[in-house]
Structures are given as structure tokens and as C-alpha cells.
Hints:
Elements: H1 4-16, H2 19-26, H3 30-44, E1 49-52, E2 55-58, H4 60-87, E3 93-98, H5 100-105, H6 107-117, E4 122-127, H7 130-138, E5 144-149, E6 161-175, E7 196-199, H8 206-214, E8 220-224, H9 228-236, E9 242-245, H10 246-251, E10 258-260, E11 267-275, H11 282-296
Helix pairs in contact: 1-2, 1-3, 1-4, 2-3, 6-11
Amino acid sequence: MLDVRRLQILLAVAEHGSFSGAARALDYTQPAVSHHIARLEDEVGLALVTRAGRGVRLTEAGQALCFHARDVVARLRLAEHELADFARLRTGQLRIAAFPSATATLVPPLLAQLRADHPALAITLVEHEPPEALELLQSGEVDLVLAFAYPEAAHDADSSVELVPLLDDPLLAVVPPGHALVGRDRARLRDLARETWIAGCDRCRRHLLHACAGDGFEPEIAFATDDYVAVQSLVAAGVGVALVAELGLRAAQRPDVAVVELEDSPTRQVFAVLPRTSRRPPPLAAAVSALQAAAAALPAR
């Protein structure tokens, strides 16, 4: 592979008609220019310049090489400009997948910040629960995932992705306003052992079953829905109690339910997931920074 720097020197020699002229234009010494031309001739096995009076001129081989060198150098300069645009986020895309309560709380300030700082960045968003979102990341269909995990959900570390912790998201008891736990200084999960429960799908209720088992009881789950608004509506109707993540309540809390903090309630960790690279691409670096700021700005309950 020919050395691009030497091709640039050859082009300068062709333009200025001498080693000394090329040296002045490139801020090189004349011996350095002569050395690089000699090395280039060694690489191609042909004479590229010949003496012409007090200067030099290109041989036929030198003219042919310069013809192609101009195109090579021009394309490399174009590549440099395009890469500079990516580095400054004047172009590019960011495809995000997030779970519902993150979409309602963390994503809006993220998108607002990115739009304000980088209006040329093309951003798309799809909503998925973490397992489906992580599949999209692995297949290259999205660039960034907002996900969560519970402590008991042991999983093998995936060396191909990077996890960036954003916040701890406690689960809170949602009960009817007149419930006995409302106003108590101390409340535990076992205080709800005799209640009828509202929970999510089989996969989504695993954290509830695990926490209740740790407190010595199995919850009586009578109603199943993954919709936090529907959960609160059922609680408000007095048909059961539920555990709802704090982010879900930040997104939409009904005024006709009561929220109780439990001493032993599960807490899930919310994090950003992105492909592991030696250096984060500029769109991902900007997104992670904006997400960390959005998480830190969430007001205390």
C-alpha cells in the first residue's frame, strides 16, 4: 500500500516543479522531500521525477501516479470532513428503545436536550420491555436501550455491551386511600400478606413473588395487568393492592390511591445499555450524558 503522505509530496513536487518549492509549500526541508520521493520510487520500482534544468518534471509513470493520487487525496479529505461532521454531531442517527415508564420520565428530557444541542441528529424511539429491547440491540436495530433489572434476576455478563447505571427505582405499595398502612411510620411487605394482589404478566411478577417469598408468604394474585394506570384504577376501586415502580408513579399517579414506602420492598436498577467499544460514538456519548442529567434531576418523592 502506497504511503499517502508521500503521494501528497509527489503532488506538491508536480505543482511547484522542484523539490525546494514543494519543501516550502509543505514546510519540509528539501532533503526530506528528496528522501520521500526516493522512497516512493523504491516502492513502485519506477522513476517518478527527472531533472529538468534547475527543477524537476514528472516522468510518464509519475504523471500516471499523480492522476490517481489527486483522487485518493481528495477522497481522504472528504472522509475527514464527514468524520468531523460525525464527531460534532452535525450528522448521524440515534435509535433508542426504552421500557414504558422510562419513555414517560427519562426519555422526554433526553430528547429535548439532544434536539436542542444537536438538531441535525436523526433520533428514533421504540418502546419495548428490556428482553425485547436487548434483542434489538444485539441485532443492530437500535443503538441504545433503557432497561432495568432486579437484584434476584441473575444473568451472565455480556462482554459485548456496556451498562451505565442511571438510578435505583424502588417499588412502592399502592393501596386504597383508607388502607391501614397509610400514615404508618414503618411498613413491611408482610403487612400486605392477607391482601388480594394485582400484578403483571408471569415474567413481570417474578420480583413480587421473590420478595414475598423472602417475607414468608405467597401473594394471592387475582388480577393481572402490565398497565400501571389500570393497576391504579383497580386499586382505587378497592379490589386489591399492588407494587408499582416509582418511575411508573412519576409518569402517572392517580389522586385516588395512596402510596406507601415499604422497608423491605424490592428495588430495581435502571441503566442504559449500549454496545461496548473502545470509545463511545458521539451520539451515544451525548445521549448517556443527557440521560445521567435527566436521572439526577428527578425530584425526590
